[in-house]
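User: Structure with thymidine-5'-diphosphate, tokens only please.
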Amino acid sequence: MKSSVFDCSVIELAKNHHQKGNISVVENNAEVPFSINRIYYLYDIPGGEDRGAHAHIELKQLIIAASGSFDIILDDGKVKRSITLNRPYIGLLVVPGIWRELINFSSGAICMVLASEVYDEKDYIRDYNEFLNLKNNV
Ligand code: TYD
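Assistant:
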């Protein structure tokens, strides 16, 4: 829980050009510093809808705008950082202990998340005051 927003980093994946289109690749412990145990993606997000608004205790994630764009607000309880994702070869690595909100989804946006662990509701902190208490007591 001691993490700061500056421990989160933007990763540029190789964009392999091909006359029929491009391909980018993410492999375990190579482009991401963890083993991927789950992939999920958000799509058909209604206009004006926000996602996220929680933190994780253990989970590491690489978040990619596979299509379209959106903004991610990172918050470590002291500092906030806003990052726009709008290219399918750019990923945002989010470390544990960071509150995140996903906003400003473009029409048709697809948010793909490569995650270090399988889904576990116990890994979530969904109450912002609880999050602040945890951050202030480490
Ligand atoms: P949540 O992680 O809160 O969504 P977001 O951060 O995108 O706004 O998850 C939304 C719902 O989906 C919640 O009821 C839990 C469920 N869910 C799963 O069942 N498995 C998963 O892998 C994820 C990410 C969510």
